[in-house]
Amino acid sequence: MARAAAAFRARVEVTLRVVDEDEGRALNRQWRERDYATNVLSFPAEGLADIAPDLLGDIVLCAPVVDAEADAQGKQASHHWAHLTVHGVLHLLGFDHQDDEDATLMEQHERTILAAMGIADPYRA
C-alpha cells in the first residue's frame, strides 16, 4: 500500500463503466479467476504516464449486483452506487483490504468521503 499515500493528486481521470451480469462475470473470471459477477472491479492505469498523465484507471460496476446488494442490505441504491464508486477509486489509488489493518484504513477513507457527500456509514449494521 505504499503507493496509496503518494497517489493522491489534484487532478485525475477515471473511466467508469457499467456492465450487465454476464460481462461482470466474464471480467471477474478473466482478471481475478473468480467465476461470478462481482459488484466492482478496478483496473489501475499502468505505463501510460507519458500519454495520459491524469488517467488513474478504470472502474467497472455490475449494475444487477449493485442493485441486488442495495436491496438486500436495505440501502438507498444511489448511496450504494456512490460507495462502490468510492471503493473502486480507492483501489485505483493503491488501497486494498487484504488484511485487517489495510481494510480498516480503506473503510475509514470510505466513511470520510461518503460522509462529506451526506451518505451514512455503509458498514454500520
Protein model, in words:
The protein contains 5 helices and 3 strands; from the N terminus they run αβαββααα. With 125 residues, the chain is α+β, with helices and mostly antiparallel strands. The protein has a 3-stranded mixed beta sheet with strand order 1-3-2. α3 crosses α4. Mean pLDDT is 91; it is low at 1-6.
Descriptive key words:
single chain, 125 residues, 16% strand, disordered N terminus
* Principal-axes shape call: globular
Mean pLDDT: 91
Number of strands: 3
Between the first and last Cα atoms, what is the distance in angstroms?
Answer: 28 Å
Helix-strand string: HEHEEHHH
Strand content: 15-25%
As a whole number of angstroms, the C-alpha radius of gyration is 15 Å
Order of strands across the main sheet: 1-3-2
Helix segment tally: 5
The profile of the biggest β sheet is: 3 strands, mixed
Give the % helix: 40-55%
Query: Low-confidence parts, pLDDT < 50 over ≥5 residues?
Result: 1-6
* Structural class by sheet pairing and helices: alpha+beta
Short overview:
The protein is of the alpha+beta class and 125 residues long. It has helices at 2-7, 21-32, 63-72, 77-92, 100-116; strands spanning 13-19, 40-44, 55-62.
